[in-house]
Amino acid sequence: MSKSIKHILKKDLVIKVGGKLWLESEGERFFGPGPLELLEKIEETGSIRNAAKAMNMSYKKAWELINHLNGQTNFPIVIPQTGGEKGGGSTLTSEGMELIKYYKVLRKPFKTFLENESERLKI
Questions:
Q1: Inter-residue contact 106 to 113 (CB < 8 Å)
Q2: Dmax of the chain from CA atoms?
């Protein structure tokens, strides 16, 4: 662990270490807080359209995220189903659920790290 920088900081400042965690490939992000929320909303609503609406995201943007995500994996993460009596819908695959679980587990030590570093900077 590196040395604290408290001696550099003004005493009346409240410093918090922040950051976001994402997965990337070749320097390009493909999974993080936004795609996680989209997948969770798809699971909840059974629809990409309804998930996008719940997030105030365009349907086109939601599809772009899903297509990009599916392009980074060996298995589809979301499977859309068109038309039919129920009007179609979308489902997460078991791999999609596994990705969500992995990311949430990964966030725990990351959050702890941010909290610990913020605590170290308290004066």
A1: no
A2: 67
Q: Model's pTM, two decimal places?
A: 0.83
Ramachandran assignment for 89, one of left (phi > 0), alpha (psi -120 to 50 degrees), beta (any other): left
Give φ, ψ of 24 to 5 degrees: -140, 160
CA distances from 101 to 39, 40, 49, 97, 111 (A): 11, 11, 23, 6, 16
Cα–Cα distance for residue pair 34/86, rounded to 1 Å: 28
Q: Tell me the angle at which helices 59-71 and 33-45 cross, rounded to the nearest 10 degrees.
A: 110
What pLDDT sits at residue 57?
97
> Which amino acid is present at 83?
G
